[in-house]
Every structure is written in C-alpha cells, then in structure tokens.
Automatic annotation (TrEMBL):
Claim: DNA-binding is one of the keywords in the record: yes
Annotated HTH araC/xylS-type domain residues: 421-519
Protein name: Stage 0 sporulation protein A homolog
Organism: Vallitalea pronyensis
Lineage, uppermost ranks: Bacteria, Bacillati, Bacillota, Clostridia, Lachnospirales
Gene3D superfamilies according to UniProt: 3.40.50.2300, Homeodomain-like
CDD domains associated with the record: REC_YesN-like
Residue ranges of the TM segments: none
GO BP, sorted A to Z: phosphorelay signal transduction system
One Gene Ontology cellular component: cytoplasm
Amino acid sequence: MYNVLLVDDEPFIVDGLEILIDWAKLNLVVVGKAYNGEDALAFMKHTHVDILISDIKMPKMQGLELISQAKELNPTCKCLILSGYNDFEYVKQGIKLGIENYLTKPVNTEELTATLKDTVSKLDSSTSKVIFSPDNSEWHILRGNILSRWVNDAITSEELLNRSELLDIITDSSCYSVAIINIKLDDTIHTQVSQIYNICYNYIKSDTDIMSFEDMDGNFVLIFTQEASPERNPYIMNLLTEIYNNIQSLNVKAHITLGPDVLSYKELSMSYQKAKKLFEYFLIYPNEKVLHTAMIDEQNLNVDNLITIDHNLIASSLASRNKERLFNYIDELFEEVVTISGITPDHLKMVVVEILLNLYKSMSSQSILFQSDIINRHSKSLAEIHKINDLNTLNETLKDLFMYIIDKLNEKETHTSPVVYQILKYTHNNYNEELSLKTLSYQFNINTTYLGQLFKKETGVSFPNYLNNYRVEKAKEFLLETNLKTAQIAKKVGYVDPNYFYRIFKKYAGMSPTDYKTIKV
C-alpha cells in the first residue's frame, strides 16, 4: 500500500478527508496528518510518504513551499493541492512543481478519487523500476517507516514479514528490546543534530543485531535483537552509557531509556511504549544516564496497586480553580493511604510523585506548565519530596504547589486583553458550534494569524487545544448528568463525527467516554 499524508490548517478538513475516501480500496493508507507545512515536512523527514495532499494557504509554511521542499526530500512523492481559491497563478506554480491535480474546496469526492486512482497507477509504474538496496536512500526511508510502524503496533504481522527480507529487518530472534535516545537541543546548537546522530549510528553500524530509526518525536530509536543470554543486558546498558557519555562531551543534554525484553517480534511495541513512559521518571532521577524498566520496577514506582488516584478530578479542579474541592480530595486521599497495610514512607512519597507526574502531563497538554515560573515550582516540589519524612509536610507541599498554580492561572486571566476576553466568552457560549480561528477572526474582524498568536500568548495554549479541552470538560458534565448516548453528546459539544469525538475525549481525559462514565458513576 502507498502512504498518504494529509495537510490542512483546518482539522475538520483533514479528518473529513480521512473518512470521506475509501483509502484501502485504492491501495492507500493515511500514515499521517499535519496542520501546518512545517509539521508536515518534519513528518516526511522520518516517514516515507508516497502521496502528499496539501492546502495552499497555511500558517508557518505555505502549501507550494511545502511541496517544493517535499520534492527535494523525496523526488518520487506525488502531490495534490486543495484550495479554497481558484487562482490561476497558484495553478501555474503548482504545474511547475509537478502536482497531480489542483482541487478546489469543497472537495468533489469523485474528482479526488479519480485523481488518486491515476496517481496510484503512476506509482505502480514507477515502483516497478526502482531497485531497493541499503545503498539506496529510498531503501532507508522505507525501512525507517516500517520500523516506526512496527514499534507503534501500526503494521500487520503479514506486511512486516513480507517486508523484512527486503529491508533486513530481523523477526526471528528470541529476544527484543527498544532503547530511545532523546536529545535536548538549545537553539544555539541545532547544527549539531547530524553530528549527534552520527555518534549514535557509529556505535551500532557494525552490529547487525541492532536496527535504528528516528521516530515522530525526533528521538533516535534502537531496536536490539540479540539472542537472550546473561551477557545481553549488560552489553546493551554499557553501549547506551558510552553513547550517552559521547553526546555529553558535546555539551548536549540527553536522556536515554531502555524498555523491557520481549520474546516475540509481535510484542515489540510494548517495549517501545514502556521506554517512552520512562522519560517521565527523569523528573525524579535527573542524574541517571540510562533508565531501564528493571530499575523502576525495583523501586515500586508504580503505585496503581496501592491506591486509585482520581487524576481527572485533580486536573478539572485546577482548571476550574476549585481550591476547596481539590484540597478536600487531597485530605481524603492521604487518609485512605495511611490505612493501607504495610505502607512505608517511600510508598507515601511515590503516591505524591505519581500525582505530580500526571499533573505535569495534564498541564503540559494545555501548555500551562511551559510557563517558566510554574516549571521551576513544579521541579522544586519534586525535589523536596525526597527530603520529607512526615505525612503532613507531604500534604502541605502538594497543596502549596496547587495553590501556586491556581494563583498563576488567576493572575493570567486578569491580564487578558479585551479581544481574548471576548473570544473566550464567545467560545464558552458557542462551543457546540463550528469554531476555528478562521471563523472567529471573521466574526471579530481580526487577522487570523494575529489572533492565533495573541490567544496563545495570553492563555498559554493554542485555540484548538483550548477549545478541545473545554468541549471535553462539557462532555464530562453531560456524561455524568444525563443519559444521552455518546454520539448525542458529541454533537452537543460541537463534534459532528462521533469517532473523532471519541479520539479527542480519550486524548484529553485519558480514557474513553464510556470508561469515564463507568468510573464516575
């Protein structure tokens, strides 16, 4: 199947296209979606794309510029343009870039399908002439794409096995594990990226039992396929430590994690996901060079078996500035924890750490924790936890942080400009309607780009992120206070497509609407 990337600054258009077309019937699969040209180009640098379907006018990078750079990156990529403007000048520029078609919005399904069929025929014809080998850049792009889909459990066993021989992918080992190398780059050292990746590659290029690729987050991912043995993990940990030391020699910050061993290629995604999860724990162990799952398990960091923490209540209480509700819950939680048989001071600390880690994820999704003062206060609270030896001080440390965040949120709200205040007011009253920066800019006669920048500057979060979060909070109220079906609630909070609502709710609430209602009721 051929890979398709959909790009438009209006999410509902991207999601609509994904649903509108029977991609599988055309031998196509949508491997990615982006909402601006820069993100689309970044995606194409690590994932092979056969067909790019892009809007013309977008923030950060226009569609024609994206197509031009995409062609430089992958000359075989076929490109289609979507536009709300039937401008002949755009058509001429697109023809120069070798686009397959220029389609005006709203998209005609039959015309788009016909264009895609023709494009697939061209790809079929050209693909048969390409000879893939490790010396071919296309080979490396395709291999990276397959490896990325493998660790994300986004490829069938049949397709993986079919591609494995051509792409030298090892699927017959008795043991697999995944390591992730995350580079913390400052603006002044972006030129060192290739040098850093070369360090990683030079360490593994002679070992045929290690495969590598760059994931969607820009991390360098290593897949270890050495057979199970007592020497296996010490060898891997030593290798990762050497890589870490070499990266550090460039005065670059790096975090490296190693997921658990799995015994089948079908379980590799579990090792990858657990390796990703480990990055959270560098908040607790900032001086560790490499974090391995075995190290975390030995420290009993997973407190799920001790107590169920209502992270949604904490997040929603902060969002609504409900200090009384939040503090009452913290008191009840601590009272419950101390009744657990065999509880130790370390266990108590881990309960608080678990709350802070989930708080960090929740607030980061709303860009609130990216305010430097809140980041520093959050880090300070984490550092203090390990020095605390009594329950009351733990309780107060947690409450002090929550009070600090609430004060900062209130302070930010009082400094909101009249424009953003009106946007927030309008959004709260009309969240169930079709809303976007474009519709709001038209409603309030403000430039779209300026409005987006002003909103994020004053609220700390992009408008789409704010709107989705607000709608999800309203959906939670409907779930708990009514007997409406999920599809009905989706429409009430502004989502026409129930499937899209389901994905958004799960992203922001951390669980499905059904699970949320079951747990709360």
